[in-house]
């Protein structure tokens, strides 16, 4: 009924020049396809690495910018405080100079503590209030 098939195929390829060229073309085409696949993978890998580096550097730039803005805000508040302290220091220096002046000191003592020179009379009016 059924005959056992032989191990040799029924169709045999001719070993001529045309067949060799077609075989070389097929080999060349498979090689080109493999090279394209490898290049695509490399390009994807390089692009991925580049994207990670750009993302990392972008995060660093963003953090640096935030830190810079924070430091600038702190610098502005510190500058404002410095100006207040300088103004206060200038006022205190002025007061020290005035307190070293004998005539000014006498004037302050007379106004605040109602001391008088000999022969002077001090009148206190109802609207007058001592400054302290």
From TrEMBL:
Protein's UniProt keywords contain Transit peptide: no
UniProt keywords, alphabetically: Membrane, Transmembrane, Transmembrane helix
Membrane-spanning intervals of the chain: 43-62
Pfam families linked to this entry: DivIC
Phosphoprotein found in the keyword field: no
Domain of life: Bacteria
Protein name (record): Septum formation initiator family protein
């Amino acid at each position: 009924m059924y005959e056992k098939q032989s191990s040799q195929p029924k169709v045999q390829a001719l070993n001529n020049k045309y067949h060799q060229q077609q075989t070389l073309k097929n080999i060349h085409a498979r090689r080109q396809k493999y090279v394209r696949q490898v290049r695509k993978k490399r390009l994807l890998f390089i692009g991925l690495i580049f994207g990670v580096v750009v993302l990392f550097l972008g995060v660093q730039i963003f953090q640096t910018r935030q830190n810079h803005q924070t430091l600038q805000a702190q610098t502005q508040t510190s500058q404002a405080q410095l100006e207040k302290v300088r103004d206060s220091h200038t006022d205190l220096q002025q007061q020290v100079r005035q307190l070293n002046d004998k005539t000014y000191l006498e004037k302050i003592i007379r106004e605040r503590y109602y001391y008088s020179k000999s022969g002077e009379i001090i009148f206190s009016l109802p609207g007058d209030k001592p400054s302290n």
